[in-house]
Design brief:
Layout (H helix, E strand, L loop, with lengths): L4 E7 L2 E6 L9 H4 L11 E6 L1 H11 L4 E4 L1 E3 L2 H13 L8 E3 L6 E5 L7 E5 L13 H4 L2 E7 L5 H20 L3 E5 L8 H4 L2 H8 L5 E2 L3 H8 L1 H10 L11 H13 L4 E5 L5 E5 L2 H5 L9 H4 L3 E4 L12 H14 L4 H15 L12 H9 L14 E4 L4 E4 L4
Parallel strand pairs: 1-4, 1-9, 2-7, 5-6, 9-10, 10-11, 11-12
Antiparallel strand pairs: 2-3, 7-8, 12-13, 13-14, 14-16, 15-16
Helix pairs in contact: 2-13, 5-7, 8-9, 13-14
Length: 398
């Protein structure tokens, strides 16, 4: 194959095992997990999970020519993963690494009605993924390289992120636009104790688009703030306490590392975007905005679209796919953030990460037809509402 790829998505890949728990009612979690108890549940959904699957296959569904690069074992779970990926399109798994020396990562997802998801995760092959597992001959043909979840991949964050530094440095030398996403690590794990400030300082200068959640960012960059907000949250959800002042300050810090575009996922509170200068945006490589001047120096907050909530597995990853597709298609910054939350809203209408997604044109048509949004009014001064795109923008210093 010699044609240009839209995107290569590398990083964390696993098999998601999602039992149907809708029939258990409102029983407390402690009752369901009581030793010796048999709980009757529905059928299980087997789906590929992790950033490679969720973001990569979402990009494919949205019409972006995409290559997936994950690492699996030569075992039953690995064969299931490759079969699912290939079922979405021939050749999608051509960049996969099959390592007989390790097992395939898997996650059991406990998705109870009215309760945030619980993940029981086995890292397996993901912990051994390094810069040498990337197929650079394939990446060289792409416009965009997206890497997801180094926080769940031990080798990538050890030694101050040396493997990530090598990986992103080499990709940037090719002129390919780079993108990075995170996941929230277990605080007691090695990733939870890692010096992420050092990793960010070394890696982010070669990252063009940084798309973590606000929780992940605070945990790794401002742990004291993260703990304070979490301790003050009665239900463990810190998102309602996140202010526009905090978003502005955090995004300012991330831009100072050298990132061109910072997108912070805010769950039900939408998607926040902050961009760097025109010069920085013009230099991000093959997926640079069609009009860097129009994208430069912007601060936007897009509310979520209203959706029939079934599950939130992969909601952040598919939101990223919507945004990256908008960037690759040359949309305006307003259109790109709008499509980000639109794709994320489609995602939550199914139990798995991909079942609710529609094509790019179907999603855009739903937006154009007047799809209602959730109410959102940012705190702080300087925000104005853009009724054309249904989002908020702040100008000048916040």
């Amino acid at each position: 194959m010699t044609e240009t790829l839209g995107a290569v998505v590398a990083g964390h890949l696993c098999l998601d095992i999602i039992p149907d728990l809708t029939g258990v009612g409102e029983a407390p979690l402690s009752d369901l997990l009581r030793p010796g108890t048999l709980v009757e549940v529905g059928d299980a959904v087997l789906a590929t999970g992790g950033a490679v699957s969720n973001t990569g296959l979402a990009l494919h569904i949205l019409g972006v020519p995409t290559q997936l690069m994950g690492k699996v074992g030569d075992d039953g779970f690995g064969r299931v993963v490759r079969s699912i990926v290939e079922g979405h399109g021939a050749g999608l798994a051509d960049g996969m690494v099959v390592d007989p020396a390790t097992g395939t990562s898997y996650t059991v997802i406990i998705n109870l009605p009215g309760v945030d998801r619980i993940f029981m995760h086995a890292p397996a092959a993901n912990h051994t993924f390094g810069a040498g597992d990337v197929r650079y001959d394939i990446v060289e043909r792409a416009r965009l390289f997206h890497f997801g979840y180094p926080t769940l991949m031990r080798r990538t964050f050890q030694q101050g992120g040396e493997e990530l530094v090598r990986m992103f440095g080499r990709v940037k030398q090719m002129g390919v636009t780079t993108s990075l996403d995170l996941s929230l690590p277990d605080p007691a794990s090695e990733a939870g104790r890692a010096d992420w400030g050092t990793v960010f300082a070394r890696v982010l200068p070669n990252v063009d688009v940084f798309l973590p959640s606000i929780e992940e960012t605070l945990f790794m960059l401002r742990p004291d703030t993260y703990r304070e907000l979490l301790e003050a949250a009665p239900d463990g959800d810190l998102l309602p306490s996140v202010t526009s002042k905090l978003l502005h300050s955090v995004s300012e810090e991330l831009l100072a590392f050298g990132v061109a575009i910072v997108g912070l996922k805010l769950g039900s509170r939408g998607f926040y975007l902050r961009t760097a200068s025109e010069a920085r945006l013009s230099g991000i490589g093959r997926a640079a905005p069609a009009d860097p001047a129009e994208w430069a120096g912007r601060e936007l907050w897009a509310p979520c679209f209203q959706a029939h909530l079934v599950g939130t597995t992969g909601a952040g990853d598919t939101t990223i796919a919507g945004f990256l597709t908008g960037l690759l298609r040359g949309l305006s910054v307003e259109e790109a953030v709008t499509m980000a939350v639109a794709v994320g809203a489609c995602n939550v209408e199914a139990a798995d990460a991909l079942g609710g997604l529609q094509s790019w044109h179907e999603t855009a048509a739903r937006v154009a037809a007047g799809w209602a949004r959730h109410d959102l009014t940012p705190d702080g001064e300087g925000w104005r509402f853009d009724p054309t795109h249904g989002l908020w923008e702040r100008g000048g210093e916040g």
